[in-house]
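Contributing: when you submit paired examples, paste them exactly as shown. First protein:
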Amino acid sequence: MTDAKGAPASEKPYDAITLAKKHRISVEDAQTIIEEHGDNRKLVDKAARRIAA
């Protein structure tokens, strides 16, 4: 799946709501994770999994 600019969705940075829904965490926690780890989806997912557990 690609966005309007042709970039794969997996390469775009998360928004807090999408991350929160994916990992079933609060939007506030998701925003904090994104602020700490930036655009690195791998690190963001890893941090979110730690909170969700």
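Second protein:
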Amino acid sequence: MNDFFSSAQRELTYLWYYFDVQLRQIAVYWAVGILVGSLVSVFLKDRIHGLLRNMGGSRFGAFGLVPAALLGVASPLCLYGTVPLAASVSRSGLRDDWLAAFMMTSILLNPQLIVYSAALGAKALAVRIVSCFLCGVAAGALVRAFYRNKPFFDFSKFDEPVSRDTDPNVWLRLLKNIGRNIKATGPMFLLGVLLSALFQRYVPIDLLTKMFGDNEAWGVLMAATVGVPLYACGGGTIPLLRQWLAEGMSLGSAAAFMITGPATKITNLGALKIVLGAKRFLLYLAFVTLFSLATGLLVNAVT
């Protein structure tokens, strides 16, 4: 019995060590990400979304996919905030292809997640930003090509967006936003650090290398597949990705994970199913899968 408790205490000590090291290395990115996300939400959100609304009267044509995708990256809203906004600007005349570009990048990336992803290193951060932007442009281009004369979205079940940042004191508004942000992301971030510590302690490095690195095509496919069930919160996956990259995961596999994860997050899929309907929802899943695989293989080929 004493040997059992001694062994358990030793394992807990090791786990705490790995958890503590991971937390110290990455917590600053989480904290800065929280601050940046809240600052954008309180001070810039209305301006960003105003620019999107103003695009409705412009004649950019296919070139409008670029600013629409960029605005999606800059938007701090989650998908359940993005869909009502998209419904509102759609009713005001914004084209479906531009909306597709905006919504796709908004699903994949936001200012807060960009800061989080800096913990992965400059190369991985650049891959994430560029691939997510191109995914949005590609989604918009496909909608433009195949749904130019017929509607792609159905926003009839979504009302006008409601802002939660309503306190008349701007600094209290910011503090409340930071509090909501911590509450929403904190538990998943800590869970991600814990999972990373468990992987570091109990999963052999050569196993991860074989899964995500040795056979690059297989590694990309595995990462794209693993991204579906594992992705619950962007901040929560950063510790895992950081650990996997350190232990041999290819950059292309990481890129595939960073696309399929947020794109197939359960909470996102529920809203998308309502907006797209069954047929277009399946097209969305096929597009995300193929784009993530192609991106991962291309990144591995050039890095």
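If you have annotations for the second protein, write them as plain sentences, like these:
The radius of gyration is 20 Å.
The mean pLDDT is 87.
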